[in-house]
Amino acid sequence: MTDFPFKLPPFDPGTVWLAGAGPGDPGLISVLAWHALCNADTIVYDALVTKVILKGAPNNAELIYAGKRGGKPSHNQEDISNRLVQLAGEGKRVLRLKGGDPFVFGRGGEEAQALVRAKIPFRIVPGISSGIGGLAYAGIPLTHRATSRVVTFLTGHNANTVTSTSVDWRAVAKGSQILVFYMTLRNIAEISKLLMNAGRSQKEPVAFVSRATLPDQQVVITTLQNAARDSKEIPTPALVVVGETVNFCEELDWLKL
Ligand code: SAH
Questions:
Q1: Catalytic residue among 41, 46, 92, 98
Q2: Which of the residues 1, 51, 68, 79 is marked catalytic?
Q3: Closest by alpha carbon to 134, among 111, 104, 109, 158?
Q4: CATH node for 131-252
Q5: pLDDT digits over 131-163, tens only?
Q6: Would the CB of 239 count as within 6 Å of ligand 1?
Q7: Per-residue model confidence as pLDDT tens digits over 210-230
Q8: Whether residue 237 has its Cβ less than 6 Å from ligand 1
Q9: Is the CB–ligand 1 distance for residue 183 below 6 Å?
Q10: Which CATH number fits domain 16-128: 3.40.1010.10, 3.40.50.720, 3.40.50.10470, 3.60.15.10?
Q11: Is 183 designated active site?
Q12: For the chain, what are the domain ranges?
């Protein structure tokens, strides 16, 4: 590995590093996460981790896939957490690698809680979340003095389920100029209706940012009114971005300049 002109923390045996790999472009992984990858005994990784990154692992490192298959969870959260505890208990340096940032819709909090309960030392290594890095690669400034000073990250997954963490759609529609949705493509018909009913304009621009930061990234611009219709052919994973700031994409889509 390249020598860095600063000191990196040691990755000790018997510890877990819970790290984000970034949104897709392998170059967006952090130095700390790369350092962990180069020194790991075991890497437990998710579906959204770009596979080429794993080539940085030592030849004898054990690679464990803990993602989903065909949209169905093939590994439940409790099993994954238990696995991390068990591997660290065996004295391994365990890298738990997730797409984007582990604490943004990544269940990193739940895994960290399991490690605390089991008294396993761990470190959180943030990653560039797709809702930030993906928008930058689409030429959509998350904030811009002309259009947005308030940003909300949210998920449209289970939008109609009433739980203690349910979304207050009226408050969101009123209070935030830009809305960045994760895991929402399949629910966009429902979500766009909820937003329009809560006062957002039918004409408001919407961007689908598909496979953001990857070579086949695709940005499709539409309106709230037509979002459901235009979502049909969008490959996953994708973000849904609602707000005037989406219009900057035309001018700032630097990948196409
Ligand atoms: N922890 C991740 C999010 C995991 S939830 C992060 O911080 O980015 C999975 C959702 O993230 C997907 O449904 C999609 O909405 C979004 N996502 C992840 N990677 C993406 C990418 N490269 N392009 C577009 N959306 C992405």
A1: 46
A2: 68
A3: 104
A4: 3.30.950.10
A5: 999 999 999 999 999 888 999 999 988 766 767
A6: yes
A7: 999 999 999 999 999 999 999
A8: yes
A9: yes
A10: 3.40.1010.10
A11: yes
A12: 16-128, 131-252
